[in-house]
Write a structure and sequence with these properties.
Radius of gyration: 25 Å
Number of strands: 0
Order of helices and strands: HHHH
Oligomer: single chain
Number of helices: 4
Helix content: over 70%
Shape: rod-shaped
Low-confidence stretches: none
Distance between the termini: 29 Å
Length: about 120
């Protein structure tokens, strides 16, 4: 086997591995059905915001029915928790999508590079 044949064989193996990796990455990203999955952090943030909103509405209802504002400190605590959870999620999202630092940004740039190089004539 000549050196050129060895190089071609290695390049074919490398290409097959890259294709397998890209397929696995797409399955992770989009699932087997082809729809993009919602990130776990986004699901948790939605759950927290919904939970805080329900507690806020309940406390407001109880304060109105009983004409007692002693539940106001818990309402304030819930609102502060809601705001803090939202800010933390936004900071995390910003760090993920920032150039040269974020994982999702790097994936999107890699996909964009692959799409432009695949469509190139030559």
């Amino acid at each position: 086997m000549t050196t050129l044949e060895k190089i071609r064989k290695l390049m074919a193996i490398r290409y097959a591995r890259r294709q397998k990796f890209n397929k696995e990455l797409d399955e992770i990203k989009y699932g087997k059905e082809g729809k993009q999955k919602m990130a776990l952090s986004k699901k948790l943030t939605i759950f927290l915001l919904t939970n805080f909103t329900v507690v806020e509405l309940y406390v407001l209802f109880v304060m109105y029915v009983f004409q007692d504002i002693s539940a106001l400190p818990s309402l304030i605590t819930v609102v502060v928790g809601d705001v803090v959870a939202f800010i933390v999620y936004m900071i995390k999202s910003l760090k993920e999508n920032t150039a040269d630092k974020g994982f999702m940004y790097e994936l999107r740039m890699k996909d964009a590079d692959n799409n432009t190089s695949d469509s190139a004539v030559g």
